[in-house]
Amino acid sequence: SHGSRSVFLSSGNSCQIQFADQKQEFNKRPTKISRRSLSRSISQSSTDSYGSAASYTDSSDDETSPRDKQQKNSKGNADFCIKNIKQADFGRREIEIAEQEMPALMALRKRAQGEKPLAGAKIVGCTHITAQTAVLMETLSALGAQCRWAACNIYSTQNEVAAALAEGGFSVFAWKGESEDDFWWCIDRCVNVEGWQPNMILDDGGDLTHWIYKKYPSMFKKIKGIVEESVTGVHRLYQLSKAGKLCVPAMNVNDSVTKQKFDNLYCCRESILDGLKRTTDVMFGGKQVVVCGYGEVGKGCCAALKAMGSIVYVTEIDPICALQACMDGFRLVKLNEVIRQVDIVITCTGNKNVVVREYMDRMKNGCIVCNMGHSNTEIDVASLRTPELTWERVRSQVDHVIWPDGKRIVLLAEGRLLNLSCSTVPTFVLSITATTQALALIELYNAPEARYKQDVYLLPKKMDEYVASLHLPTFDAHLTELSDEQAKYLGLNKNGPFKPNYYRSAAA
Amino acid sequence: SHGSRSVFLSSGNSCQIQFADQKQEFNKRPTKISRRSLSRSISQSSTDSYGSAASYTDSSDDETSPRDKQQKNSKGNADFCIKNIKQADFGRREIEIAEQEMPALMALRKRAQGEKPLAGAKIVGCTHITAQTAVLMETLSALGAQCRWAACNIYSTQNEVAAALAEGGFSVFAWKGESEDDFWWCIDRCVNVEGWQPNMILDDGGDLTHWIYKKYPSMFKKIKGIVEESVTGVHRLYQLSKAGKLCVPAMNVNDSVTKQKFDNLYCCRESILDGLKRTTDVMFGGKQVVVCGYGEVGKGCCAALKAMGSIVYVTEIDPICALQACMDGFRLVKLNEVIRQVDIVITCTGNKNVVVREYMDRMKNGCIVCNMGHSNTEIDVASLRTPELTWERVRSQVDHVIWPDGKRIVLLAEGRLLNLSCSTVPTFVLSITATTQALALIELYNAPEARYKQDVYLLPKKMDEYVASLHLPTFDAHLTELSDEQAKYLGLNKNGPFKPNYYRSAAA
Amino acid sequence: SHGSRSVFLSSGNSCQIQFADQKQEFNKRPTKISRRSLSRSISQSSTDSYGSAASYTDSSDDETSPRDKQQKNSKGNADFCIKNIKQADFGRREIEIAEQEMPALMALRKRAQGEKPLAGAKIVGCTHITAQTAVLMETLSALGAQCRWAACNIYSTQNEVAAALAEGGFSVFAWKGESEDDFWWCIDRCVNVEGWQPNMILDDGGDLTHWIYKKYPSMFKKIKGIVEESVTGVHRLYQLSKAGKLCVPAMNVNDSVTKQKFDNLYCCRESILDGLKRTTDVMFGGKQVVVCGYGEVGKGCCAALKAMGSIVYVTEIDPICALQACMDGFRLVKLNEVIRQVDIVITCTGNKNVVVREYMDRMKNGCIVCNMGHSNTEIDVASLRTPELTWERVRSQVDHVIWPDGKRIVLLAEGRLLNLSCSTVPTFVLSITATTQALALIELYNAPEARYKQDVYLLPKKMDEYVASLHLPTFDAHLTELSDEQAKYLGLNKNGPFKPNYYRSAAA
Amino acid sequence: SHGSRSVFLSSGNSCQIQFADQKQEFNKRPTKISRRSLSRSISQSSTDSYGSAASYTDSSDDETSPRDKQQKNSKGNADFCIKNIKQADFGRREIEIAEQEMPALMALRKRAQGEKPLAGAKIVGCTHITAQTAVLMETLSALGAQCRWAACNIYSTQNEVAAALAEGGFSVFAWKGESEDDFWWCIDRCVNVEGWQPNMILDDGGDLTHWIYKKYPSMFKKIKGIVEESVTGVHRLYQLSKAGKLCVPAMNVNDSVTKQKFDNLYCCRESILDGLKRTTDVMFGGKQVVVCGYGEVGKGCCAALKAMGSIVYVTEIDPICALQACMDGFRLVKLNEVIRQVDIVITCTGNKNVVVREYMDRMKNGCIVCNMGHSNTEIDVASLRTPELTWERVRSQVDHVIWPDGKRIVLLAEGRLLNLSCSTVPTFVLSITATTQALALIELYNAPEARYKQDVYLLPKKMDEYVASLHLPTFDAHLTELSDEQAKYLGLNKNGPFKPNYYRSAAA
């Protein structure tokens, strides 16, 4: 729910929030979900399918709900709820493999371990539960924190990783294929504990924060800060802040420069190829492709496809990005100029109804349509669910939509994010995200009280640079240091930050 | 067995061939296979695992051998042996999808259908049995031919496609997971038929040709020619020819210019990325990679990885290719100069023992090792099967080999071809191959007797150009025609061939 | 004098400014210049050599100073001072050629001509006087303005263009090869006119502004605003503003997004190749190059050289840019790691003493050293002016510096900006700059008084986007328009601006 | 005269050759030249303008013909005829600079010096006389040869280099700006010497060979072989051979693999940018370009322009090259589809009348037209020399051709080769050529008599590889050596050749 839900209810003392647009929100949900009786708002991202992580996970036939069976780890601890504790060994190996590609967190363990900067921290987290998250959690623990964790998505949990975490003593409440009721139950189990109260929140999507606002508003008295990962969650926080209802400082780690560049330009450069190949085996050479939107995501897609020998057209609304597309060697067109001739259509706009039925009616037979943007609104998929069109599921995440005359278009992931659904996110990108989260937690937890008010903050530039620097050894990359004389000449501190305050990642 | 097996036995009248090096051959086989008691030589490629095609195939629990159950198609025909005729509908859809990406064959059907250039042809074929092959077979049929078909690989058959072909009236003998005995039984069922004798052979690997030479040499009296697809099979044919034992004309379609460029440069440019991503999810950006060999395959790999932001080193033995690597922007090194620092090692040499144990001992933790060359000899995998090293299968086609100190390298496809095992071959590439095969069959079948002797021929340049031209409409590509004046100036026929005889694809 | 001179003297009533650091300033000047007795401060850029523009200019033997001869144009007007009015026809043709590549200004003439948005404007300008500037001046005139103009650089004037302008009725005071005294005399002639007082300033380098501050401070009473083009001039303005001494609104057009991207990334991508080729004819393929600094300029240089087959290393101080270099496929090193092996060294840092003598001592024979950064301080050229080294001028802008052992390095443009000295700036880039200047003048001249205070402003985002949009027709590029629904969804005005306020070009 | 002149007259005993098509030849000459009374055939290339080399040369005012003044070098030797012996020092420096970029020849001096493989060789040469040729000549001398030399082009001689050679004792007869009579006089002075008779010929264009055939056919009795550099000269030799009139073995070094790749793909990749930039200062980013022909030259041009952000269209007649263009990401079109929209037209076909008047009539205003192919016939320049069109020379090598409606196209080098006329050939490319020439001379001079008959030969593959290997150290490139086991496996000699006989460079 891209920017739509600012609605938090609180009966507590400090913050008064109301459900303002719940009704509107419900109308926006996909049919399948809205048929269920939802007693609570759930972030849309929490029900997105999440392809790749799931692929390593067992498809055990045991249909008993984890909530209905009691499990203990080898030390007798039972304060968790997961699919199957017996998968712990397999999960541990996955975690070890992930550790090898997350050197920054491992370095953080080493550098900061002596001082335990998170000693006393009681972190409640709600994120995807994957091997990479496990490396983060075990790092937080090594730095002194206690952690309780739930999943931010009902499909994305790697059961064997959850098992390994439970075996390692973490209180994890998550499994792949939770119901919506399970989803909130797990979150509640994380925070509603006798004799333990969180003092830090790590959230991805805002559902955990929402739950505490709604059910346990008084908890915020002890909470030192919120670290939020997602666009949606950050949007909620800004709206809370604007409304004067944000009770604690919050760190927006979504917009850190390093994360942005990696999540968008560099990651999409690879995942557009991966996502298309895994779903369609299409040969890129010689294909005509139109990419809608030339922001960082579009730039990444265009660069990759051009490099593979595709002929790429670009559409844009912003003349500055448009001029960049021209200079980068792409014909700037309106969609209707090329829609009949292209083999692949990719949306990267963040906008809605970019590819509408009228365009799809004019596509040629076999045209592939997919979305790399920030939401599932870019392709008007609903317009394809009409009686005269036949849908044929040809592979996982691949539908043929067939016109009466036999023409078929190939729709990927039903218009949802291709790179989340049909490709994997490299561990290296997740490492940057996880490191940023860890540093944000450390910063908020240790900052003198005056530093952060009840507002939403970006990660300090210097810490952003620190995240980047922790990832350089992976590439055996050697940074040059300024001499005193040079630092003075440039008016910079030798240790950074090296960029002015107005520097932003989003500049395209 | 890259160039090693020239061994055909014939008791027939026209050709005397002996098992010359069978013993040597057996020693070369991988352990697993040579443990089995092999009563006959089988091409190594026939037992290669064949990943991608298999992925769409059912994993039915029915363990009855197809040889033990009688099946009929809907018209009561039972002259086939496949897994399950009930899968025909599903297979038909796969064929229809493939048809959309094989426009050249479809055009061939249209253009040549009137004249039925293969009327009277009785073709026995032995190739991978996939949707793309089905499009070829149905094209041959549309051109007038009768076809009987077996699989050239015990793993690669798409059962549902075989079912669709059987349902369509083709005599197909193939299923996924044949035993070696099954393999030869199927081939025999194709040729050993009462009242039907083949007059054309389409082979991929030389096993079918070998079987006829061995068992039914007299059949060659009626056979007008052999079309052979593979390096191995072509090598066998050249050796037969050299030995004066080739009884009929043979067409080497492996070395057609169009096929070479596509199979090597363009296909590898895409499949190296696809193969690495599907197996390891590695992020390419910033990775240090060494590519051994800078022929067409190496050039494709290097170009793709460079475009994705990898830092690529090249090794070469040939100074001309080496100089090209330099001019293309790659550091030319010896493997030992960079082996400690690289993240990925890719072999593309066609040579043996390029990556030996000594190098693998010095690789860094997590180094990925894979082979894109022409054989499975490039990486000395045998040297890794020693007691002190632990093998851990982490995913299909992915092994971690772990040293005593904990270092692990990531070995893909056990050193076999990455792009066959771990990625898919785009239909477009297969379309070029299939079209070339069809044209070669037409040429050999219709050529006046004097044109071809008992020798191995390359596809005439003009037909090679014709294959290319049939694929241009896919790209909406418009060829320019020479004016009479220009043709005269250049000394060319307006319709080609446009290249001199000495033109070869292999030139790097 | 990158950021060093904030020194304006004013005896006027409104603004009290003092020479604060004149002494320091003088010490920073290159030896050659500081040896001259300078009675006034002159911007360093005003004496930079300026290669390309000069190359089309006559090298007439007439050594009479233009100040000493009276000339009239064909209408009898003599209010100008240029080299030779007879060259007007040749200059007119150059202007006409430039017009063809400056469609944005031509469009501006058409669109805005009806309303004459500069009616009443009296603009005094001090810029390079080239064909492109002439197109700007004639556009300003067409929009209603009166113009008087001097050169901002003593070498860069295209005499024939100045002649054409004079013939066309413009009061131009400029010629190629002015002395420093000439330089200020020309500026004075522009402003010190009976019965005419400027109400707008267009400056490039700040010298004109400085002169008015110093000599005619009361003029500022009537001046509505300053438009400043250069880094140096903008820096001066910010310092004035900081000191509370800026008397009128000023528009910093140097930092407009469009200009930045073009001046840096896109322009340098081409000019690095051009500059190196014209001076050294070096073949790029296979060359090892180190680029110091991975900002926009460095990114442009690296991309171009990589594309031409060079092997490129990068040095950086900022971990974020460093990580980008890694992801873009460049080895990140310290200069000393590669200094012995590289063939070309390029500085793009904006820093000082990046390439010092110690490094140059270790370069290999024939190494090319040049500067693409923002100042001439990056290479420590002074350190090469020692007795044991021999300088040999081998071509214009190319020196061999020879070590006692015979090793020579190839120093380009004596360490000054390679792209200004040794390549040309494409008209298209100048078109963007000129259009931005024109729009800034219109904005400042027409803005309601309350809109701009006595401060330095960036061009409003919307006008930046307008400049970009005016250049799209050159590429036959078609912008997509938001629907009402989409604009609402995104929270944007349909006509832009499309970027948030914090959007900046500098983001790397 | 691309392939037109097979005409050699011989009155000698061994070879009877006649002027077959002289008349036709004369009609093909450019007007300016054919106006002169030509008493002899001269290769067209000998009168091509030759831009870059000339740029370093003095434009001395001394108009005395070198033939009219007697000069001596410092040792009193007068057996030469050049512009001005006093320029020897300046020329020597140019030679020394060239030596630094011709490491292969320098290595050859070292390696072969001991054995003097050219001891006794008397070489007469006719090539461009540049610093690079000087390095070749001094290498030949160091290897034991005596040399006499003339220029193969009337414009290309670097006078100061000729002076340095004369000062060094070489008998050089050449200056910049020879008349046609001078041209043949110089050649004659080389061969018509008392007491000295050449036994080897090194030719570039075939004029020297022609002269000897015509004037001194008996000389061939002592001549061991001809080494010919140019397409034209090679063509003449093949025709002689075909006609049975070739008296001695000849080595075609034009078609060596290494030279071809460098002269075409790699050199054009750089020179297309350089040539366009130096003449027009055009910005490449966003420009629409059509490249006619996708052989090696076209591939180089396309790759470079695509890399610089141009949008490139390709035309082709050959479906195989066409398919490659598609796979490389270029739209394949007919010229008339894009002629109205493109900004730049580049011919690379080797064909004639590719860009005819009809197309030029439809080009848009400002369109740049140039030729990178093998002859000056590709653009129908003659069709532009009509009364209604106005020609305006705007710079050296740049003409505006202006239509009655004011539209102008920008024609470069009057349709002659852009890279010869408007850019420089990198020394590195010339180094490959010169090394190939030296090795060919050594081979022919030392080969046992039986090895070469009176025919035209390609450089043996192994020597081609040797040339390449001598250039690898420039790139600090390290070649891998085959182990004995690997060589055996591949069926190769460890020292090469590594490519089969049918391997050719031209395959693209």
From TrEMBL, chains A, B, C, D:
Gene3D superfamilies xrefs: Adenosylhomocysteinase-like, NAD(P)-binding Rossmann-like Domain
Organism: Sinocyclocheilus grahami
Cofactor: NAD(+)
Basic residues: compositionally biased ranges: 29-38
InterPro entries membership: Adenosylhomocyst_ase-like_sf, Adenosylhomocysteinase-like, Ado_hCys_hydrolase_NAD-bd, NAD(P)-bd_dom_sf, S-Ado-L-homoCys_hydrolase_CS
Keyword terms, alphabetized: Hydrolase, NAD, One-carbon metabolism
A Pfam family that the UniProt record links to this protein: AdoHcyase_NAD
Domain S-adenosyl-L-homocysteine hydrolase NAD binding: 264-425
CDD domains linked to this entry: SAHH
Binding annotation for NAD(+): G295, E296, V297, G298, K299, G300, E316, N419
Gene encoding the protein: LOC107579442
Source domain of life: Eukaryota
Protein family (similarity comment): Belongs to the adenosylhomocysteinase family.
Catalytic activity: S-adenosyl-L-homocysteine + H2O = L-homocysteine + adenosine
Organism lineage string: Eukaryota, Metazoa, Chordata, Craniata, Vertebrata
UniProt EC number: 3.13.2.1
Amino acids binding substrate: T130, D204, E229, K259, D263
Protein name: Adenosylhomocysteinase
Gene Ontology MF terms: adenosylhomocysteinase activity
Cofactor note: Binds 1 NAD(+) per subunit.
Biased composition (Low complexity): 39-49
Pathway: Amino-acid biosynthesis; L-homocysteine biosynthesis; L-homocysteine from S-adenosyl-L-homocysteine: step 1/1
Region annotation Disordered: where it falls in the sequence: 19-76
Gene Ontology CC terms: cytosol
GO biological-process terms attached to the record: one-carbon metabolic process; S-adenosylmethionine cycle
